[in-house]
# Entry
Amino acid sequence: MELFEFLIMKYGYIAIVLILMGGIVGLPIPDEVLLTLIGYYTYIGKMSYVLALLAAFIGATIGISFSYLLGAKLGLPFLMKHGPRFHISHKKISYTQQLFYKFGPLLLFIGYFIPGIRHITGYLSGISNYKFLKFSFFAYTGAFTWVFIFITLGHELGNKWFIVEKYLLKVSLILFALLLLIIIFLILRYKFPRKFH
# Structure
């Protein structure tokens, strides 16, 4: 964490953009804690709240767009070619694409709030040939909501910003369990439509 603090203090908003890009693509960066810290910096006047929010939003959207492009350009051909070796049949790939096409918006929006999920949603969107316009609407709306909540939390908590880290794991686990239940329900409803009417 000290490294990120140093980078932000030295390079400012550019560092925020680059760090958030890396975090979304999948680098091991404590994104929420970092966003809360940035919020704290806006509270003590070291950074502008609006510019910090903008920099974090740009970093998150560039990161998830890059993941999307990787999935679109490399993911599907790689899976189609090498998937069967790992018991990932063409049928399974096609089924996963259909599921993501149906439930993608939910994953793209809520996924930011669950560590691990936000790192794969962009990639899955690309693999599933999700239309970029639809992808960007839900992914960018989710990104803005995510950075706004955590930067604002840091700003409002002030000197107590660090308590976010204390409760973050519990909240993430609850959100993950909730998302899992919603996805299971939607899959069951999709597979057995008569039982849910």
About this structure: The mean pLDDT is 81. Residues 35 and 67 are 20 Å apart (CA to CA). The helical segments are 2-11, 13-25, 31-43, 49-82, 90-110, 121-127, 132-157, 163-191.
